[in-house]
Each structure stands twice: as C-alpha cells, then as structure tokens.
Amino acid sequence: MANERSQAELIEQDIQTDELLINMGPQHPSTHGVLRLVLRTDGEVIVDAVPHIGYLHRSGEKVGESVSARQFAPYTDRLDYLASMNMNLGWALAVEKLLGLEATERAGCLRVIMCELNRIASHLVAAGTYGLDLGSFTPFTYTFREREKIQNLFEAVCGARLTYSYIVPGGVTADLPDGWLDQCEAFLEEFTPVIDELHAVLTSNDIFIRRTARVGVLSREMAIDYGCTGPVLRGSGVDWDLRRDGQSPYIELYKDYTFDVIAPIDGHYRNEAAYPAVPFDAVVGDSWHRFFIRMIEVVQSMAIIRQAMDRYRKTEPDVGKPIKTTEKLPAGEVYLETEAPKGQMGFMVIGDGTKTPWRVRLRSSCFSNLSVAPELCRGHLMADVPAIVGSLDLVLGEIDR
Amino acid sequence: MTEFLTHYIEPDWIAHFLVAAVHCGLILGLVVMAAAAFTWAERKVAGRIQDRLGPTRVGGRFGWLQSPADGLKLLAKEDLVPAEADGPLFRLAPYVSFCTSFAVFVALPLSNDWVAQRLDASVFFLLAVAGLEVFGVILGGYASGSKWSLFGAMREAAQVVSYEVPLGLCVVIPVMVAGTMNLVTIGNMQSGWFVNWMIFHDPFMFITFWVYCACAMASVNRAPFDLAEAESELVAGFLTEYSGFRWSIFFMAEYASMLAVCLLASILFLGGWNGPVPITSWLGLTHDVHPVAGFVGDLLGFANILAKGVLGVIVMMWARWTLPRLRIDQVLTMCLKYCIPLAAAMFLGAMGWTYVIRGGLSDMDEPTPVVQSGQSVSLANHQEGGR
Questions:
Q1: Which residues of B fall within a CB distance of 8 Å from A202?
Q2: Contact B151/A137, CB-based, under 8 Å?
C-alpha cells in the first residue's frame, strides 16, 4: 500500500513542471503606469499573480494634513490624473460639507458638465489603452483624438489640459468663456459617430470578443466582497451608481438629471436595443462587460452634459467664490464618496478649528478594484493578464496616492 | 548568363562564382530595398488607418527618406549584448533568420525565367528553407537570457511549426493541379486571361487561396498572429533584448519573408508574372519575336508580380493595424481545428476535381512552356519524368 502511494507521488513529481517566476512591470507596456505584477506561471498559465504597488507614492494624505483645504485642491488633480475634475469635485464637496457651504446653481451645472466631460475622457483612455492591451493599436489613436478635443475644452475653461484644479471648495475658479457652450455642443455632435466606430473596431469585433468574453469573470458576490466599485462593480451585474444612490451633497448635484445607470440586470441592459448586441460568449462579470459598460456610460454622460448645458443657460451668472487659503475648518468629521469614472472615490476630512485639516484620508476605487486582479488572473493565460488588468482600468496615481 | 560567361572566362568555376555573386547582389538589393520600402509603406498605411499623416519630414513631402534615416539611427546605436545572454548564439540568431528568409528568394522566380537558381523542385525548396527562419527566432529568444524572450521563442516554436502543416497543404494543392513543383512552369501555365489563374481553376482552389493567406500571415508572424513579439504581453517577445543593427536584421528578415510568402501566393494562385490581360502576347513582347522584346515582356512580368506581392503585403499591414491580437490557444486552435481540416478537405476536393475535369473552369490544360534556349528541354524532360 505504501509502495503504491509512493508510486503515485513519484508520477506526480515526474509530470510536475517547473514554475516560472516572472516580473511584469513596473516597466512594462501594458501595466498602465507603474504597476508591478509578480507572476508565477506554469508555461503560459498563470498560477499566481501578486500586485506590488507604491512606485508612485507621494504621501498625498499626509500632504493634506500640512496644507489648507484650498491648497490641497491641486494635489487632488494628481490622484486619478485622467479624471482630475472628478477628483477635484470629491474634495470640494467634502470640504464644503464640513464648512456647511453650498455652491451656487451655476457652479453646480459647471461641475456636472466638467465631471461628465472628464468621465468621457477617462473612459476614452480606458477604451483606447484596452485596445492596446489586446494588440489593436488603431482605436487608441481614435480615442486620443477625441480626448484631445475634450482637453481643448478644458484648456479654454481653466488653462490646464491635465491637472485642472477647476472645481475647488466654494465653487469653481472661473465661469465659461464666450462661445464655449457652442464648442462643447459641436464636440458632442462630432463625437456621437465615433462611438459607433469604436464599437465596430472593438466592442463587436470578433477577435476582441474572443479575447475578452469569459475572461476574468468577477462574480457579483466577489465584486461586493472586495469592495469593487464603478464599472467593475456594475459589470458584475450590481445596479449601483452614486450619482443615483449617493449621499448628500453629491446626490443633490445629479438629482434633476435623467440618465440610466448602466448595469446588466439579469443579463440585460436597460434600453438594450440602442447598443450593439451582447455577444453570445459573454457572461456577466467578464472583461467584455466591464469594457462595454464604459462605452455606454459615455453615451449617458453626453446626455447629462446636454441637460446641464440647458440648465446652465437659465442660471444666474454666479459661479461662487473659492474659499480663502486661510479658511479655518470647524471641528468635525466628514466622509463623502463620489462616483468617479473608475469607481467610488472617497474623501475623509477631519477639521480641528485650524486652517489645516487634522486628518485627510482618501479611499481609492482603483485600489479595491486592483485587489481582485490576482483572483481573476489565476488559471488564465499569460495573454489574459493585460486583458484583465486593462478591463479594471487602473490608475496608479490614485492607488499609490 | 552562365553560358555566356563560361564561354568567355576560362576556368569555369570563376564564371560560376561570378554568376552567383551577381545573383546574390540582385536578390539582396531587392530584399533590402523591399524592406526599406515596406517600412515606409507600413508607416504610411498605419497613418492613413489611424487618421494621421505618418512620416512627412524626412526627404520631402512624403517622408520617403524615413527608412534610410531609421537605418542610420539603428546603425549608430550601441552594440548591446546583455550580460545574461549567450553571446555567440545571441549574435548569430539574427543572421540565421535573415539568411533563411533571403535564401527563399534564390528559388523564387520573379518573372518568366528570372530566377537565380532554376530548380525542378523549387516549391519544396522554398517551403523547406522558409521553415528554417524559426530557428533564428528560437535561438534569439533562448540566447537572450530573458524570460520574456524565452516566452516569445516558445510561442514562435509552437505557432510556426503548427502553421507549416496547413501552409504546406495549401501549397501542395496548386502543385498537384499543375503537376509540377517547378515554379517557373507553374507560372507559365497561368498565362493568358486572368481566368487562367490558379485561383479560378476550381472552387476548392479559391478557398485554398484564403486558407493560404491566413496560414501565411501566421507563419510569418504578422498581426493578428504576432504572438512571438506581442508587445502588450511579452514586452517585445524574442526581440526584447535586441537593439540597433541586430534588431534591424530581424526586422528585415520579417519583411523579406512577408514579401516571399506574398510572391509565392501570386505565383501559385494569382498568375505570377502574367497580368490579368495578355497584353505582352498581343504586343508581341515574347522571346519568339525578338530577345529584346522578350526582355521587355519579362520586365513587365516582373512589375506585375511585384505589384501583386506588394498588394499582398499591404493587405497584411491593413490587417495588422485593424485587428486585435489572438491568444496563443486561439491561434493554435485555429490551426488545428480549422486550417488543417479545411486545407485537407480542399486537397481532396481539388484532387477529385482534377480527376473529373482536368482543366478546371479555365482552359489551362497542359503546361505551355515558352520556347527558350535550355528551358524547354528541361521542362520536357521534367514532364516526362513527372508522369
């Protein structure tokens, strides 16, 4: 009997192949910045993937405790640098809530317009780089061409193309220049057919579907357990969007706009007929759905921008006044989460009566979304790692803070 | 040329050596020029597809000096061999790749009888030599001493070796229909109107052509099958540690094999140097009429085959800049589950077709050799030997 078992062990030892430890990143074309993944592979199959982060750590939270609330706004630009407007908004709303301030109606409209434009820009980068991850170079140039137009709009408003610091506690830094709304409308007009183009080269491309459908399937339970948010959570079939389900004062910003929360409910999307058909191979929670949700959210954002522009025209010309850099924060504690393009971005600020916050704490959506990557990669092939990590749409500036 | 030189130069071996040197020079010139032109074309094609201009600055409006400028830049780069690399093998690998893809052109006719070495089994030679290119890649990937390179080499080995099988099957079908392995003969059999082209011979042949296209793309490692150097997964695969001149040698080998498979496709399926319309015979540009007329006719034929080859290469570029990359298991599945059975079925189908209707849909019946000194005799011998 003992002999038999040792025989079996012997065979097992015999067919066991060596595992290869391979270091993917921080200098790797498809880790989107400085993410480092240590992969343990058996041939091409991933046995384990361990993310290593911290290459972009800038002590953002500690900086927040050394400068005043107004001075911290530019630091928030550098969190998710592909969606700086949304980062600005989170901080501005958290500080305003602590101060008991409320932005003017016009400032609110501007905030919505800018955040949704930036959401489009962020999703465009996600879609383009996801194409790169899968070896398709051309969609990247299309998406960046469109993003460039959004950056031109931002430049006209605040002078910056990447780090805007436009939405600050108290309001926004400037009103729109003349003719901006027409330019924005022209952009939306030009952009509409591009979405169909992107659907053609990516979403409904046969190879793209083969590469993404049933790859990295994140179950609904696992998505909730790991604290995934944003398109990653919605891709797993959870109907949850802070723009609809969030807290005050964030919810007040969006309460008068009509838009759909994009999530597959029982495998079906709202208003499904308007979009390309879900391929037969795809299952809820896979990389294809995460990508698809971003592509449709772009359409919803465009609808929100159109509504916000109409409201803007009816408002009083008062964009609020940014708080002073010496503004004292009252004693108290505020934690507010907003729906950034990548997920729920949370800002915690604790005041103690001085101008610098006593404590600043950031909740990064990408951090939680990255934490499922090892689970998703396990058992997949080497080529699926970029497909999975890309579908999570990570920005390391936000993870490392 | 051999006869001409041996007539005048006394020791025969010097004459033979001279002939070989001239042929090598001509082919090398063609391959290098093609690589340079394709580099430029690739940038321009990619530019068009991606809604941008491509190179515009170097050498006037169209940036046509971009390739020489790139070449100079690569030559001026540091000669880098990683400390972990196996030095001699690392240095050898690019040349293995390049020599094999270059050697393919030795037996590849570029016009009626314009071929460096006339071989009766040139198809066989071509397939055998083209298959060797993978050695350079595997060697380079292994000798680099990098895990990414090793992955690239492993993929290359799996992919190219698998695709040799359906590619070989696809090539065998026109050979079977033609009844000869001599590419010059196969090309000449397709003279006349375009309906005489092999691709229109029968429906099976038509499908075979498309299977050949897919297999050829996979066997020369072009996107969407460029798994060996998949930059988003393997950094640059087997090329990761290569830089400067050695990298450019690999690069030239890639473009040379692209051109080679496209030229082979045009000879086997698309009439080779015969245009869609038999203009040369209408104008009397054949060797029967006058040697100079024949030369002009051959020159036109060369332009013809080159145009077909370049068109094929441009289609490959188009695919590269449009499609995402397949995964290794999908590439191998496609080979084993679709390409091989399809090619085998086409083989059987074409065999049955030629058994029932010898000429197929075209009036291509028997080889119609162009009467030319030396060749007709060898062709006749071959025909007799072959049957």
A1: 324
A2: no
